[in-house]
TrEMBL record:
<keyword id="KW-0812">Transmembrane</keyword>
<feature type="transmembrane region" description="Helical">
    <location>
        <begin position="35"/>
        <end position="53"/>
    </location>
</feature>
<keyword id="KW-1133">Transmembrane helix</keyword>
<keyword id="KW-0472">Membrane</keyword>
<protein>
    <submittedName>
        <fullName>Uncharacterized protein</fullName>
    </submittedName>
</protein>
<feature type="transmembrane region" description="Helical">
    <location>
        <begin position="73"/>
        <end position="102"/>
    </location>
</feature>
<feature type="transmembrane region" description="Helical">
    <location>
        <begin position="139"/>
        <end position="161"/>
    </location>
</feature>
<feature type="transmembrane region" description="Helical">
    <location>
        <begin position="181"/>
        <end position="199"/>
    </location>
</feature>
Length: 241
């Protein structure tokens, strides 16, 4: 149990260094201090940041409440403020976990992380790239795009009807025309998605699956060519399932 907590603390501490202290300015300065003085700094930092966070939050809410904002604008501003609050809380909590990494060789680990990031960038293995998404995520994205356009067309059509004074017969005719338009849109959307999937995404994904994952435990040569996509031996790699 203790090993699990130590491993978790080490990972959280490394995340803090990677996000807030990439040059290890905070880490190396705190490491040189006495442990009791470090804990004093942790306590002071947490208290000061917490008070500043509470004051800033109260000022922020009072400021935006003084304006007559639209609900969607108000919700967006609140969401942005919440993101900043989460980042601030992450800093407050994360700084304590630096205690788990002082006795570890984090320089070697950070070099491996940098190599991994370079490997991912060179070989276009970023998670956000569409070709790197699993099939169910791609389906969800396609459905989301379809739902967006469907609601857009339906909302526009209903708004148009709300401004018109028409008979029941004309209303039924308008619905029939809208139904015909939506059927054509659905067919066109399915064809477009199929062409995009089988001509663009599938071939690109097939190439990506041939690229081996970065081996974090292996000692990678600094001068080695990690750009698999530009390597002539790419076709010799075995495809991973």
């Amino acid at each position: 149990m203790l090993n699990i907590l130590s491993s978790l603390g080490f990972r959280v501490g490394l995340m803090f260094v990677q996000i807030f202290d990439k040059h290890q300015l905070i880490t190396k300065n705190l490491k040189s201090l006495n442990i009791y003085f470090r804990y004093f700094i942790y306590t002071i930092t947490i208290v000061v940041f917490y008070l500043l966070l509470q004051i800033s939050e109260a000022f922020f809410l009072n400021t935006i409440n003084s304006y007559n904002l639209q609900p969607i604008v108000y919700s967006t501003v609140i969401a942005i403020g919440l993101i900043f609050k989460i980042i601030a809380l992450s800093f407050i909590v994360g700084i304590v976990f630096l205690e788990f990494i002082y006795n570890q060789n984090i320089d070697q680990y950070l070099k491996a992380v940098e190599k991994k990031e370079n490997y991912i960038n060179k070989n276009q293995l970023q998670w956000w790239r569409f070709k790197n998404q699993k099939w169910y995520l791609r389906v969800a994205i396609y459905l989301g795009i379809f739902a967006f356009f469907f609601n857009l067309f339906l909302g526009s059509f209903l708004s148009f009807l709300a401004t018109q004074t028409i008979s029941i017969e004309q209303l039924n005719l308008n619905w029939i025309e809208f139904d015909s338009f939506m059927k054509q849109f659905i067919i066109l959307f399915i064809i477009s998605v199929a062409l995009f999937e089988f001509i663009k995404v599938r071939p690109a994904r097939k190439v990506q699956l041939k690229i081996p994952k970065f081996d974090f435990d292996k000692n990678v040569d600094n001068n080695a060519d990690t750009n698999i996509l530009s390597s002539s031996s790419n076709d010799d790699l075995k495809e991973k399932n």
